[in-house]
Amino acid sequence: MSVPPKWLTPVAILALLWNLLGASAYLMDVTISPEAVAKMGIAEQAMYASRPVWFVAAYACAVWFGVAGSLALLLRKRWAKPLFVLSLLGLIAQDIALFSRPEVRGDLVVIFLQGLVFAIALSLLLLSRKAEREGWLG
User: Fold this and answer.
1) What is the Cα–Cα distance from 47 to 41, expressed in whole angstroms?
2) Residue 46 half-sphere exposure, CB side, CA atoms within 13 Å?
3) 48 with 33: CB under 8 angstroms?
4) Are 102 and 45 in contact, with CB atoms under 8 Å apart?
5) What is the tally of helices (H) and strands (E) in the chain?
6) What is the pTM of this model?
7) Each residue's pLDDT tens digit, 37-83
């Protein structure tokens, strides 16, 4: 294993924090109380209630494999790359479900935010690939 650059640890810590934010959002989403759902607008309630189970599963895969991949990157483990692949695949499945909904298609905020999440997920996968190729992971 070769010596990794000094910037790798701070980037891995930021990646872990980013993915923990995603995991936190996921947990808030799946543990939302019926009272909180009732306070949503009618359209939001309908959208929340009509999400397919595979959407929630893809969301879980995206965030939890992202957390695990970030932790693996921080610990300099080779399994970071396959975990980031699984996270990205979960995100792609989640985005397919999200953008297939007519009420979301033209929403520029959703498009921007999901684009940002996708760019970061892809960047982490590419970083783990580079780290593996450079011998920074054991």
Assistant:
1) 10
2) 7
3) no
4) no
5) 7, 0
6) 0.90
7) 889 888 788 888 888 899 999 999 999 999 999 999 999 999 999 99
